[in-house]
Specification:
The protein has about 675 residues and is α/β, with parallel strands linked by helices. It has three domains: about 40-290, 3-Layer(aba) Sandwich (Rossmann fold); about 310-400, Immunoglobulins (Immunoglobulin-like, Sandwich), CATH 2.60.40.10; about 430-660, Rossmann fold. The chain contains 19 helices and 27 strands. It has an eight-stranded mixed sheet, with helices on both faces. Strands 3-2-4-1-5-6-7 form a seven-stranded mixed sheet, with helices on both faces. Strands 12, 13, 16, 17, 18 and 19 form a six-stranded antiparallel sheet that branches. α14 crosses α15 (about 560-570). The protein is elongated and about 100 Å long. It starts with a helix and ends in a 5-residue tail after the last helix. The model is unreliable at about 1-20 and about 20-35 (pLDDT under 50).
Length: about 675
């Protein structure tokens, strides 16, 4: 170690003068390179198009805050109220297009660029856009003729650019070139030219003219073209997006910017403010990528956050006194809904539901999302599913799942505040998930129990009990998640139309399959269910809840298979049940003759049952069986209530029937 320091000292002292000269030269060079590295640079971006580039969404306070001074805009027209002059640059506080325009993707394009570029780099944008304009408005050989035939409402907008928006863009660009370098062109246009194949060549013409008139190198100036409102958001012009994605075929340095999952305005033509923010960031992400820069925040917000279904609500109406469209959320109506599923490798995806006929074809966007937009049916709750290359699946983006052992479906609720299945500002009962041990079946079984809102506040009060059974392949949850039994009862109790009661949802599957109810083979299954209910479920409920245990305070009802099980249980145990309802179900005459011949007389049924109720849809595949069941009663003079509705074997009908029965029980 000592030898090392000796040698180092000798060398250092020998070459001190040379070392000093070297250090001085090195420091001077470092200073020069540092100055060069920090030399100010301005990137200029030309932006043009129609209403979405112009900016259609209302500018919010957040959009005016925290704008980096390095982000500038060049006014392409005068802004008298804001004191902006055409051809001058200003901080990029919106609006950026004209004084009365809104938020645009350009706003958040520039913000994102300066957030990710070195501190010596600034951004200047020039935005020339006209709402509703054809691409011809930017074509040198077409603009004069276009101005003569454009709609009246467009005349003032064209006049703001001296009836030549293309030339105004070029003139402003030439001014900007004196202090900066044009690094890219942003386009958002196509709604007016939706589906026109010639649009591709027209855009190329505009791009080529800009390259020539501004002396630009196409290899160094990319064109970024944003998609219109996407098919996955129900965009009315989404059919144009495949053309936008084909621009790289005609312009080598063109790039399509996805609008997938960007929120849309009520008209399904424009984006919301949040939609513009997301789309603007996506423009910037692509431009940064082309410059070899990885964004600090590369999360690409909402790009993977697919929404389904997307409900399109019309909350505007025309106010004749004000002579304009007015927003009024109290008058909002669901106009349509878009359903989406991400299946990038699928060859064919179809949509199936209880409000459409047959399988409906879906369309695929550039991100692998398949979509369909449909007019909304009347208010109700409808099951639906997707068929992906022949396989039925529920909607992965929808939390509302139809509980079923067999088919996989999701739920689509068409809102209506007047409907009883809609949660309202009333006292709400408690829904409890429980397990009981079934010695009959040798397993623990699920049970759902509803107690009314007043149950906790009346510790000494006892309540009647209603056993409500689901249908074939349904689970104990189906009356809850699809039938909305608890919400309907909450609302009826609050309106004084139903008696507060306990409702019990048993699982109707007896674990041995479901025999054909049109044969005597179904009887053993019905018998077993009756034993499980009376010997196991009822004692469990009566032990754990405050129940009235007389026959008049018990009721049982069910849908489909659950209706058959309910009838068999009630008719087998008239000492335990005085109320029975059957929804879209029946017992065959042979079973009734064999099992209940002594009970099924006019006198006995009237004495034993306070409520005897049947309902079925006119298009229900079990309609004729229910008719035969009723004829059996009619021949014996047995009195019952009956409701026939439109539609088939659906939960929409089941909810309707349940609503009627609730209002009859325990009164």
């Amino acid at each position: 170690m000592q030898l090392f320091f000796y040698l180092y000292s000798t060398i250092f002292l020998t070459h001190t003068k040379k070392m000093k000269r070297f250090l001085l030269t090195f420091c001077a060079a470092a200073t020069m390179f540092s100055a060069m590295a920090q030399k100010p640079e301005t990137q200029v971006y030309l932006c043009f198009g129609q209403s979405n580039m112009e900016g259609n969404a209302q500018i919010e306070e957040i959009d005016r805050q925290n704008i980096d001074p390095r982000y500038q805009m060049m006014a392409a027209v005068d802004f008298p109220k804001m004191g902006r002059k055409m051809g001058k640059t200003y901080p990029a506080v919106p609006p950026l297009c004209r004084e009365n325009t809104g938020l645009t993707p350009v706003d958040y394009f520039g913000r994102t660029m300066v957030e990710n570029l070195p501190k010596n780099v600034s951004i200047c944008v020039i935005n020339v856009a006209i709402g509703g304009c054809d691409i011809k408005a930017f074509m040198k050989d077409s603009i004069e003729a276009y101005c003569k035939v454009c709609p009246d409402w467009m005349v003032p907008m064209l006049a703001a650019y001296n009836n030549n928006p293309y030339q105004r863009l070029v003139d402003m660009a030439k001014i900007a070139q004196k202090k900066g370098t044009i690094k890219g062109i942003l386009l958002h246009q196509g709604e007016t030219n939706t589906g026109q194949e010639a649009w591709l060549g027209m855009v190329k013409s505009v791009y080529d003219n800009l390259m020539k008139d501004l002396n630009l190198n196409p290899d160094q100036v990319p064109l970024l073209a944003g998609e219109v409102v996407n098919s996955d958001r129900g965009g009315v012009c989404a059919a144009h997006n495949p053309l936008i994605n084909r621009l790289p075929e005609v312009i080598k340095n063109a790039h399509a910017i996805s609008s997938s999952a960007c929120p849309e305005n009520f008209d399904q033509l424009h984006f919301t403010a949040e939609g513009y923010r997301i789309l603007g960031r996506r423009y910037a992400f692509k431009m940064l990528q082309l410059q070899g820069i990885t964004p600090k925040d590369n999360s690409n917000p909402r790009a993977n956050n697919l929404v389904s279904p997307v409900m399109h609500v019309m909350n505007f109406y025309f106010d004749r006194e004000q002579n304009k469209m007015v927003r009024d959320n109290s008058k909002a109506k669901l106009r349509s809904a878009t359903f989406n599923v991400y299946a990038p490798n699928a060859k064919k995806v179809e949509f199936s539901s209880q409000f459409t006929e047959g399988l409906q074809p879906m369309v695929k966007n550039a991100n692998g999302v398949w979509s369909i937009t449909l007019n909304s049916p009347k208010p109700d709750i409808y099951p639906y599913n997707f068929v992906v290359d022949g396989v039925s699946i529920s909607d992965p983006a929808n939390m509302d799942i139809f509980p079923n052992e067999n088919f996989k479906a999701s739920l689509f609720q068409v809102p209506d505040n007047e409907q009883l299945y809609t949660i309202k500002d009333v006292p709400h009962g408690r829904v409890t998930y429980m397990q009981y041990k079934s010695d009959e079946l040798g397993v623990y079984r699920p049970l759902i129990v509803y107690t009314p809102a007043e149950y906790e506040q009346n510790p000494n009060k006892k309540y009647p009990v209603f056993y409500l059974v689901s249908g074939t392949t349904d689970t104990e949850e189906t009356w809850y998640k699809v039938g909305k039994f608890n919400t309907i009862l909450d609302n009826l109790i609050a309106d004084g139309k139903a008696v507060p009661m306990i409702v019990v949802l048993p699982y109707g599957n007896m674990l041995h399959g479901t025999p054909n109810p049109a044969t005597m083979d179904a009887v053993p299954m019905y018998q077993q269910f009756a034993r499980v209910l009376t010997n196991e479920i009822m004692p469990f409920v009566e032990k754990n809840f405050r129940t009235k245990n007389d026959r008049e305070s018990r009721a049982i009802a069910g849908f489909s298979r659950g209706g058959g099980q309910s009838q068999y249980t009630a008719f087998s145990n008239p000492d335990k049940f005085a109320n029975m309802a059957s929804f879209s179900s029946y017992l065959i005459p042979e079973a009734m003759d064999k099992e209940f011949s002594s009970l099924l007389t006019k006198e006995n049924m009237k004495k034993n049952f306070k409520v005897l109720w049947y309902g079925v849809g006119s298009d229900d595949f079990l309609y004729n069986h229910v008719k035969t069941h009723r004829e059996y009663f009619d021949k014996r003079g047995i009195e019952y209530k009956y409701k026939e509705t439109e539609g088939g074997h659906t939960w929409m009908n089941a909810r309707d029937y349940l609503t009627d029965v609730y209002q009859l029980l325990f009164k």
